[in-house]
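Q: Structure tokens for this one, please.
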Amino acid sequence: HSGLVVDGTMNEQTVLKTNIYGASDSNITLRNKANMLVEADEDINIGKKGEISLTIDNSTFEANLEDSSINFGGSINGLNTNTKNLALIAAKDINLDSVNNVAISTKSENVNLNNTLTNTIWQVTAENINILNDSYLSSNGTNTLIYNEGLLNLSNNKASDINLKSMTLNSDMAVNIDVDLGKMQSDKFVFGNSADLITNDNDLSIENVNLLNSDLIFTDENYLIPFISSDYNNTAFLGHVDFEDTKNLMTPIFKYNFGYNETATQGNWVLSRGSSSDYKSYNPSALAGPVAAQVGGYLTQLNSYDEAFYNMDMYMLMTREQRQ
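A: Here is the predicted structure, written as tokens:
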């Protein structure tokens, strides 16, 4: 076996005070209730892409790196019930590859999820939580998210359903999302049962909406894009969505407003405009061509009138004999 293997039957507690540089044999295996604590004053790189960087079998991996970063080149893989496979990671920056069958706690300034979580319990505390692809967090509803703090950045140019096994908010959740106007679809959290979403009376604060396909032609006065509904078992968010940044959207023909609206049973993103009879509802550039054509036609008409009256005046000055 390459890399470091720690067996809890031989060493219950192993403290590793060194830097790991991500060599081909830098992967770690913990088994039989082993407990490894990693401390270092420089960045740590564990494993390579395509490898299993960390294997946890009924054991605990803990990293305490206040001023440095930890990078998992490959996956973190648990071999037992996920609640018995623990990864407790505190670092300035954390870069995660795939994580499977592990209960993981991350505390950092920035945590980047660069691959798929599966059957994972993730407790996250950070300033910025960057999800490279929505499916990495969703993974067909096998993951539990316990949110403590941070901006959850789901803005990755794709609007998707975030299917979760459950989610608990221990504070107001700040989030960036995508809304695809071409598909009339929004990033949204979806659960198997309404009891799977526990908000603890905290708010979902939408910090930014990334509008996709906003250059398409829209003609209806109103469009509704679903965000909260009993169909998604996320109605616990009703009354707890904070979005104040109404956007003005200039489409090829009309000017639209983009905002959020709730009823007693659902929450929707709303794309709306004024009446077609009001010139203020139009994109000024859409009016430039028709107005110019209309003005041009009017000037041509005036010119025809001028010529007609001029000819009439000249005709009236002629003698009777000249007019015959």
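A few notes: Confidence is low (pLDDT under 50) at residues 291-296. The chain is about 15% helix and 45% strand.
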